[in-house]
Amino acid sequence: MINNILEFFTTVVVFTPKFIPGVFMTFKLSVLSIMMGTVFGLLAAMLKLSHNRLMEAFTDFYVTIVRGTPLLLQLIFIFYGLPQLGIEFNSFFSAVIGLAFHNGAYISEIFRGAIESIDYGQREAARAMGMTKYQTLRRVILPQAIKRSVPALGNQFIIAVKDSSLASAITITETLMLSRQFVAATYNVFPIFFIAACYYLLITSGLSRLLLRVERRFKIYER
Length: 223
Description:
This protein is 82% helix and 0% strand. It has a single domain (2-222), classed as MetI-like (MetI-like fold), CATH 1.10.3720.10. By secondary structure, it is an all-alpha fold. The longest helix has 34 residues, at 189-222. The model has no long low-confidence stretch (mean pLDDT 89). The termini are far apart. The protein is built from nine helices and no strands.
């Protein structure tokens, strides 16, 4: 038993630094997909609330496709399927687009719910003061909606970090892919995946703390 424990900690100490390139790739994928997904989500929410039937139908179709199909299948379609239609991206860009496309659908529903939760009287008051529809949205509605969205967005961002592990299916050498490579080389399953889990926990914990500070800062402005 003592030998097993020593072997475990030795493996952890030796392989922890070797994960850094994969962790950096996970971090890049997560940040870019979250940023692009937030933009996609906000645009989709605006289209959904535009009262244009064509735009609403397009947004509903987008959200339905994302919610009704697995993320892994979406990544495979973008990386392997689109080239057959003449649209080709490298593996990294395919992963970013796929993750952003997936996150954007859920983020759009978060933004839509937050925007619709703002009392309609505020819009009427803003219009009565002479603001245009765009000014009302930018100065009155969106600032409040974003504040209300932070907790739900935080949960989605954390899910996005964990979902980035599926990028290994399209040849991205991120944390999970490195774990599999190291396991195949050493047959030391538990300590290798333990290291990967610790890195994911480190990233999501840091993100959670950051979002908690943002949420608290917004609450200060509400006092």
